[in-house]
Amino acid sequence: MELPYRQQRLHEVMFRAPQGDDVEIRVIYGYVYDAQSEANTMAKQAGGVRYMQQSLGPVIKRLNERLVEDKLVIRPGKTKQTYRLDTLSAVR
Description:
Largest sheet: 3 strands, antiparallel
CATH architecture: Orthogonal Bundle
Order of helices and strands: HEHHEEH
CATH topology: Arc Repressor Mutant, subunit A
Helix content: 55-70%
Strand order of the largest sheet: 1-3-2
Strand content: 15-25%
Structural class: alpha+beta
Low-confidence stretches: none
Mean pLDDT: 87
Number of helices: 4
Distance between the termini: 25 Å
């Protein structure tokens, strides 16, 4: 499956973790966006995890639309400030 850059980065970071394990938003954001850039560092400090979550939301939504055919979904994790990769049957 060919994906736009950020969706590809999100796909990579989520598929590295064992399915069903929570991945911290900070880790996901740092991988999907160039967290080393000065602008992103300042934005993270200003808005914290909430800012990261809002930035990742549209990327997760678009990737989820593609993952449906594989019966997978990225959804909020069991612990705060995390996401996890699950099967669609685990969501229902």
